[in-house]
Structure formats: structure tokens, C-alpha cells
Amino acid sequence: MSILGLKKKQPKTFKVKVITMDAEMEFSCEVKWKGKDLFDLVCRTVGLRETWFFGLRYTIKDTYAWLKQEKRVLDQEVPKDSPITFHFLAKFFPEKVEEELVQEITQHLFFLQVKKQILDEEIFCSPEASVLLASYAVQAKYGDYDPNFHKPGFLAQDELLPKRVLMQYQMTADMWEEKITAWYAEHRGIARDEAEMEYLKIAQDLEMYGVSYFAITQNKRDTDLLLGVDAQGLHIYSPNSKLNPNKSFPWSGIRNISYSEKEFTIKPLDKKKDVFKFYSSQLRVNKLILQLCIGNHDLFMRRRKVDSIEVQQMKAQAKEEKARKKMERQILAREKQMREEAERAKEEMERRLFQLQDEARLANEALLRSEETADLLAEKAQIAEEEAKLLAHKAAEAEQDRQRLEVTAMKTKEEKRLMEQKMREAEQLAVKLVEQSERRLKEADHLKQDLTEAKDAERRAKQKLLEITKTTYPLIAAYSAPPAPPEAADFAFESTSTRVDFKDSDMKRLSMEIERERLEYMEKSKHLQDQLKELKSEIESLKLEEQQQQAGVYSLHNEARGYVQEPVYIPHSNRNSAYMSQMGFFEEV
Description:
Elements: H1 3-6, E1 13-19, E2 24-30, H2 35-46, E3 54-60, E4 63-66, E5 84-90, H3 97-100, H4 104-119, H5 127-142, H6 163-168, H7 173-184, H8 192-203, E6 212-217, E7 224-229, E8 233-237, E9 247-250, E10 254-260, E11 263-268, E12 276-279, H9 283-303, H10 309-479, H11 486-561, H12 574-588
Parallel strand pairs: 1-5
Antiparallel strand pairs: 1-2, 3-4, 3-5, 6-7, 7-8, 8-9, 10-11, 11-12
């Protein structure tokens, strides 16, 4: 076996991973492939035709480098990893993005790269411009703002502002979102490619846009400076200030740039101006500076020439594509507007339908309530009618009672008049009886006086008679008459006694008649007093009954009118008081 047969077979391919701004791709490349072969494969895969802006960048040690297209890939200082990692990035930036970036994919890749540089603070951006750029980024990602869909907090997962801006102000994420959303709502109707172009148009005016910075020294004393290379030319900065250059060399004013190992020489077009020299210690950095200077200068000169046929075709196609997309967007916008109007009309009709349903429901409820109210009112009317009939019946009864009471009152008045007449007659009778009583009393007193005088005269007569009898009887008996027998004497004495007794009996009879008359008078007087008491009680009962009847009449009238009046106290008249006083007088008598 030969020694050559023991040697390991060399692989014919190698793996490559290419990372773009929005994707990762892996390719299997042939060993003999040059950088141009891999670059063209990536551009075809991405669909990119404006290839002169881009390149494949890789990291080597502490710096980066761009893959050269004329050399084989494996012959360059690429990493030995498998797969070899490259970043597909913009190497050169246009002066005016709206004029130079033709394809939509080119705009999109530039937008993503510039946005990342701003967020990573590789490009300085003020807070106000950061918020405006973030609103265009949100428009490019989410489309038109819809408050029904884009609720508060929908940007919580998106990185839209540099950390420096977030730390500069004491504002919460919700406050930043509110500010961005306020601008975002103003971009309604802007398509994604238009929003990305507006983003790039604002970003290209930033001082650090498209500038590649390198550390240099101006002389052997190692004065630290920064070299900036961009589409406009070369710029010299202080180490602490990347915004305002100390000195600038536009491409139109540079006659030649020479490079010898670590020394760069910039020769102005104006020979009167001094030549500017600077130094860079790293060979890889010097080669990178030279590549960027050559590429930017070539693009600068290319912009000032007539576009090639390929670029003209691309611009024409891009113009047609933009016109077609614009037309499609207009049609889409019109359809969207019509759909929104139809949806609004549908919502309005649904709202109107719901409103009409609510109104119908309310009307039905009102109708039911009206029917219930009508039934209730009919029932109340029936009840009121019955109450009216009842009240009319009660009123008729009250009227009958009133008439009856009036008749009763009239009867009562007549009875009262008769009673008063009887009372007057009784009074007159009482007065007469009193007068007769007084007269009888006077007569009785006269009779008593006459009786007393008669008794006194009788007693005196008896005494004189006895005295005469005692003095004269024996003489008469002795002289004029024979002696009488004892029976005759007794008879004479009895006759005398009988005469005397006869006078006593008359007196007694007179006294008895007087006493009987007095007793009869007392009886009559007592009977009259009893009659007066009965008459008084009848009058009081008639008065009480009259008051009750009057109160009944008032209550019936008040019931008929719907209210009740308190009974009125009617005091006795002065005449009744006179009757009472006379009755008292009679009782005393």
C-alpha cells in the first residue's frame, strides 16, 4: 500500500450559515467557491438585486471583516468553525434612501439594520425622534391602528426605544406606550413599505447614520482621533464626540487616498490645501478602511452618472410594482372602507334593531301596564260607581232620616211647645195653688185665731156659767120649785152638760174640718210637686233626645258630604233656667 493511499480524503464541500436581519440560512458550498459565488447564492435566495449595498461580514479575533468576492472563501481569514457563520448586512449606505433604494426587500433590510443600530445605540437618536421612529416601526409591523384590537399593553413585548432614552426620563412603560400610540394613530393608511421608508428618511438625517468609525492617530505622538467613513466622505472626530466632526473631506474634494502599511494620506483636490495623514496600527483595520473608502467612493461616482440599463429596468419595474401595489392598496382601502362602512351600517342596523326591540319590549310592557292600569281603573270605576250608588243610597237614607228627623224635630218642637204650654199651665196652676194655699193658710190662721178666741170665750162663758150656777141654783131651787126628785136633778145637769158638750163638739168638728182641708191641701201640693218633677224629667229627656237627633242629622249630612262634624253643645235657655228655679221653689213649698 502506498503512502498516498493512507492520506485522508479532503472534503469537497463545507457548510455555511448566513444570518440576515430577519432569517437564518444554511448552505452547502463547494471548496472552490469564491466569495462572489456564496454572495450571489444568498442574494438569489433573498431575492435581492441591489447587491452593491450589501456584503457578508464575519468576525475575526477582536474585529470584523468583509468577505472578498474575488478570492476563494476558504482562502480568506474566515473562522474555522463548521458551519462558518456570516452576517448578511448593508456595507454601504445610500445618500438619499427614497431615490436609491428601489426594491422593497432592499428597503426592508435597511430598515431592520438601521432600527437595530438605533436600539443598540450605535446611532445616536434624540428621545423625540426615537418616539416618532418607534411609531413608524409599529405601523410597519401592526398596520393601521384599531382601538378595538390594539388594547393597552399590546406593545409590551416589543423593543422600540433605546435604553438610554428609557433611563433618561422617569416614565413607565405604559406612559411610553401611550406616547408612541398617539403618533401611531396618526399614520393610518400608510402601507408597510411606506412606513419603513418614512423611518429611513428620518434616520438618514441623524449624525451617526451610515458612518463606520475607526480609531486612528494623527502623528507619531499618538494623538487619539476617530475616522468616520460614510457615503459623503471622510470625517475626523474627537474621541468623545461622534456627532460633530472636527474636519471633513467630501468625496468630491478628495484627489487621492494612498495607503502604505500603517499610514494613510488624503490628498485634497485643491492643491493649495494641506495633505492630511493619519495612522492606524492594525493591518486588518487598515485594509477594512481602504475597502470602505474604495466602495463608498465608487458609489459616490456611480450616483453622479446615468443609471445602467439594469438599474433603469429595476427602477421601472419597481415603479410599476409600486403603482400596482398602490392601486391594490387603493382598491383594498376602498374595499376596506366599504367593508367598514357596511360593518358600521350593520352595527347601526343591529343597534337600531336592538333599539327597536327594546322600544317594542318597552311598548309591550307599557301596553301590559296600560291594560293592567285600564283593568284596575275599570275595577276602581266599578268600585267608585258602587260606592257612588252606596253613597247615593246612603244620601237618600240620610235625606229620609233628615226628613224624619225634621218631622221628629217638628213633632218634638210641637211636643215641646205643648209641654211648655202644659208647664206654663202647671206654673199658672201652681201659682193659683200657691195663692189658694196662702189664702187657705190665711183663712186657717184666721180660723185658728177665731177658734182660739171662741175657746177663750167658751172657757170664759163656762167659767161664768159655773160661777152663776154655783151662786144662783140653790136659791132658785129653794124658792121657786118643789124639790125635785133626784132623777130630775140629774137630768138637768146632763142637759146643761149636753149644751156645753154640744159647743165643744162643734169646735172639734170645725177643727177637724180645718185639719182635713189642710191635709187635702198638703196632699194636693205634694201631688202637684210630683207632677212638676215628672214634667221636669220629661222636658230634660225631650231636650236630650232633641240634641241626639240634631247630632244624628249633622252626622248624616257629614257622611253624605264625606266628613264628620263634632256635635255642638246647645246650652239651656234662660226660660228653662226660670222653669228650674220655679220647680225648685215648688219643691221648697
